[in-house]
Amino acid sequence: MFTSWLWSQYFYLTFAVQACAALQALLKPTADMPDFAFSEDWKVLGPFQIGTREAVWGADPLELQGGFRALEYDDNASFKSSLASNGIVSWSSFTAKVSDPQTQYASAELSVSFPQVDWRSLQDVYGWAALQWQGWARSEIYVQSEGTKTLALNVEGILEYRIDDHHYFGGDFYSFGRAAVTLRLEPGVHRIDVRLVRDVRAMSGVGEPSVDITFKLEESYGTLVPAMPNVLVSDIVGDDNGTLASPYASITFRNDALMDGYIYDVEATQGRYLAELVGPTPIKLIPGQTRPIAFRLTCVPPAAKVGPIRIMVKYRMDGDDRDWQAYIDARPSTRALNEPQKLTYMHPGGMVSYAVLRPPSPHAHCNDISPDASLPILLALHGAGLEADSDMVRHSLDPLPDLCAWALFPTGVTPWSGDDWHNWGFADVEAAIAAIPDWIEQVGWKGPGVDVDRWLVSGHSNGGQGVWYALTHRPDKVIAAAPLSGYSSIQNYVPYTFWRAADPSRTALVQSSLNSYRHELLLENAKDIPILQQHGNRDDNVPAYHSRLLGQLLEQAGVGTTYVEIDGKPHWWDGVMTTEPLQDFYRRHLNAGLKPKAPLNLRDFTVVSAGHGDVGPKNGVEILHLETHGQPGKIHVTFDPLTLACVLRTSNVRAFRRPAFFSDCSFVAVDDTNLTTLAMSGPAEVTLQSDGGQWYSGSDFPPLPKRRGKQQGPMDAIMRTRGAFQITYHSPAARGIALQVSRNLCQYYAADTMITDDYEKARTSNNSVISIAIGNDSPKTSHGYHPIRLFSDRIEIDDDHVAGGPAVRGYGSMNGLAAIFLRALPGERLELVVWGVNEESLDIAARLVPLMTGTGQPDFVVADRSMLWKGVEGTLALGWFDGEWNVSRTSYFSPLDQVPSDVLAALKSIMIVLQLLPKDVLQHFTMPEGLAPDSDLLLLLGTHQRKLQALELGGPLFSTLTEALNAPCCSPTWLQRLKHLTIPSIVGNISELQGYSQVLQRAQHLESLCIGVSEAQDKEVNAGLHDTEHTTGTLTSRLFGHVTPFGKASALAIAKLRLHSVKVAAHSFTMVIDFAQLKSLTVYSCPGFMDLLPTLASVFARGSLLQEFHYSGFIQDDGRMEQFIKSCPCLYALHLEVRTEQARVAEFDFTCLLGHLPTLGGLGLNFEIWDEYLGWVSSPLSPAFLNMLSTKCFAMEELALAMPRMTLSATLDPDYKDALAALSVLQYLSTFRIMNWPAAPNDCLNVENEDAADEPKLSELRLARYLRLLDSFATDVLHLISAHRRDANLEAITTLVFGQTAIAECVAQEDRRFRVEVKPTCYVAGSQADAHGLPELVAIRKTLEEFEQLVGWTSIIHEF
């Protein structure tokens, strides 16, 4: 036996030694095992539905379950998906292609597809929108070095990912490879989670809808390093001894160090060039930041043959006085003077960009050319994914070498033209045009000049779409246009069909923010401009439908166009830019442009603007401001050639610039306002403004709206910066998001950014500012008024368009809180505020910083965590600011904004209190009236107070309840332990009913249930259900989730049930509750309950445990109530507060009933009858009846009675005294409740020296007088009762309750030997109190009071 044991120990020891050796070998790098590598094994979950460009809004269904990060691989797990067969998807395995082992580099290529999904049938119905999907993939990075590795990670085709649960948003969706992420990974295994997003716009709608992604890891040495291998530099013009086409150049650097880096100088070696940095120095890069470094290169004469130009970049690191250098070679190409050549220039964003310029050929055959002629520009806009410097673009016009034009191929900054030739990309086009005169001077050009205001715009694919943008946004500069195979708009390219369902009020704002790029809406601007459309009819990338549609719309808008559809041609083919129709079109309009301009021949025309500040004039008419933002504005101009009258009709236009041609008009009218005098004042342009339909000139009217020029437009108006973006972070915790925003702007726009914590310096610069803030860190606006105010735990928004007057919309942080919005800076600049109540919420807001086109962010967005899975539907508020920076009437605010800010503060305070409590001490938790826990509070209760047994919800559940209950991190076991649950009023929407239903389904051991639904709310709920049963009684069963539409289960076995203002039908009610187990039943104002009594009586007759019955409502004199009470032999407490239209209630046989209730210890009776003059009044109970009580129920401990009408007079009514005296026989009575409240006579409320002018003080004095009378009355009643008791013991009655009011602290006195209990929520003295100026005595405290500390921390009571 011992030998066997010894051998077993030897075996285990040997195994352990071998395992340790194997582990050491695994972690020790060898020649065959690199320091870092990707795993080839990937686990994928998907596909799930997603819409075009929706991912930035979240819309990830897995976030409802805590996110993909909260899930672990499980072969048996399944998830709902609308794309898969049977609506179910599960985990699957894929293998990535990983790079061969290398010392300083590793990569992984992963292709994910789902052939089991019937994509064809989905596409047949929904088109390309059905080929877009999302999912998640998980793998690992192995780091096997001896220490921490600094690595640069490039992620191609990816928008969002996590490494070791650190979130990175932005990625490199278009595979630019410009701005890598700097990682510092410890030895070991690191998990990487990647969100897969398939986008037809980027990945094509042809073939299998797969997603191909690539990861590249490259070792870095922790310094400033070139982020891209090339220097952006212009070509050399002429020969090898020629000059650079432009002096501007750029190198992109990344800081991989742990401290800030500062580039302070740049030099060109070999002495052939001088180099100097552009802009302020030094140029700062914080750790992880990537920036393009702009500099000038100047030739040193005499010029010599130029090879590579070695650039030396000098920098220092923070805390290190040493000078460091980095070297990179610039390799400019040499081009002949008339050959297409790379031209560099400064983009308005403060970085260097380039275009390819082909000057006019000396062999061009131009009609009527003169030596000083200025030729127009032929703009050729490239398609998506192409560089302007590529041979495909550069030589696309080679078959037309003799055009009478300057051919310009802009790049739009990136291969995707920045933002599809819109704000950022088109600013690059205009910068390239403006650089042509500089080129002429730089190279000493002697040929024709350039007319920078006359363009023939041509473009293919995405460039064709760019042609539509130029045509509709710069109509006075476009002399002709040729859109080739271009799509109409991104919304029409891949429809937004598969976006998550959302309130149309929300989605309308998303769509309206794209109006300026919805070219279909702006085609009237193209009138009188020649257009040639060309498309291949076999185009499977951009279907010919787009050109056909726009051709139809142009005709309907009165715009002439020629459409050429090339048979058998696909999207691209050799010569697509120079077909015969195009050659003829180019020559006809470029040559015609050489002729002198004819006098303006006015014809009727229309100007349309989306109000985004990016539409130029049409025939000199330029819309400057709109009345209602988010809706297009129009001006229709009618010209009468006989009378020379000019008549303008406007729609949604507040201001426009008067054109010069007004001076040629004999009569001018704008919307029936005669402006002829203004028209005769000369050609100088002035601004016209509308005020209530009357138009004025700028000199006759107050200043233009505060928001003007470049400040107009949706959130991407921030891209109109003049210089590097100033990104300011207002706390160290916000620095990471500042870096993310900077990286994304560099990646997607090649933009330059300055990251700083000096807000004042950033604000006073000439550039756009992006402020990153958490909580209270955000600075207040310093440039006028702004309607959004940020606090540490909430947001307030001024809204002037609420019915009943201006209001403040308040949003609390119960479910996180994020906001992103524009605000004004001087000089028509903008600040984009990115804010979160905490770091997690800031991450949500940062998703909406402009990243790619088609995402549709309006001026402001407020959201919480639910946006991550609901998408746009998860936003709390979004919309526009008008010309005065007020919230526009078209903005959207969710119903949650109706919660007052003090209530939101109360919820926050509750969270703070709960967080201070020790774990597992609470047994009873009561929410304040009107409030219910949100998901944060539920999670806190579920994880920190696992002994909770009683939960009282004070108001309707928030929509996040269902989310919280379904989250894996919120264990439902604490709900299973609940024994007592109070459910308040229901606002009336299905999601709240479902939330309550889920609570009840999880509360399996519930003993007590209280439900309260007001009559008005009950109607609203049922109206919202759209049920065909026409039975309001089904509300309760639907609420529980036991009958349709939420399924069916067994009835609830509970001991205590309270219903308040709930309409229930007998058949559904008995299905929900197992009445045989019921011990306490309270029914308050529940119509239809009397019909249930016979059923209950038959149930209780077979055996009833009911001990308490409280009923308040109407009663019929038909014996049903008596029969029901008789069926409850165990009844201990009976409370009846009923109304009847009978003149008397003697038919109700009290004597008989009391004889059936020998155990009765508590009784409450109040019968109200209808009086013709007084309304509902209590029917007095005679002393004889009270004597009967004493004989039948001598053991009575609690008694509540309605007495004859009482007044706080000097002496008590004799009948009242007799009634009280009759109670002397109830020796065990400890609580006596008077159920109708005494009123104060007029003369008792008179106050000496009343001053009606001081009404608040007068009301206070009257209230004090009333309270003194009330206190005296309570004392008299108590002494009268005790005087007839045999033991004359004042302390025998410990509680004396008068009606219901909220002034208990005023009535009770410190020296009283008994407790006077006063209930809240009712009025004092009814209308009589109002008549005497008494305030309502419903004392709802506006702030959360300090919680009561009870024994063992078992209860917390919050009140308002």
UniProtKB/TrEMBL annotation:
<dbReference type="Pfam" id="PF00326">
    <property type="entry name" value="Peptidase_S9"/>
</dbReference>
<dbReference type="InterPro" id="IPR050955">
    <property type="entry name" value="Plant_Biomass_Hydrol_Est"/>
</dbReference>
<dbReference type="InterPro" id="IPR029058">
    <property type="entry name" value="AB_hydrolase_fold"/>
</dbReference>
<protein>
    <recommendedName>
        <fullName>Peptidase S9 prolyl oligopeptidase catalytic domain-containing protein</fullName>
    </recommendedName>
</protein>
<keyword id="KW-0732">Signal</keyword>
<feature type="domain" description="Peptidase S9 prolyl oligopeptidase catalytic">
    <location>
        <begin position="420"/>
        <end position="590"/>
    </location>
</feature>
<dbReference type="InterPro" id="IPR001375">
    <property type="entry name" value="Peptidase_S9_cat"/>
</dbReference>
<dbReference type="InterPro" id="IPR032675">
    <property type="entry name" value="LRR_dom_sf"/>
</dbReference>
<feature type="region of interest" description="Disordered">
    <location>
        <begin position="693"/>
        <end position="714"/>
    </location>
</feature>
<feature type="signal peptide">
    <location>
        <begin position="1"/>
        <end position="22"/>
    </location>
</feature>
<dbReference type="GO" id="GO:0008236">
    <property type="term" value="F:serine-type peptidase activity"/>
</dbReference>
<dbReference type="GO" id="GO:0006508">
    <property type="term" value="P:proteolysis"/>
</dbReference>
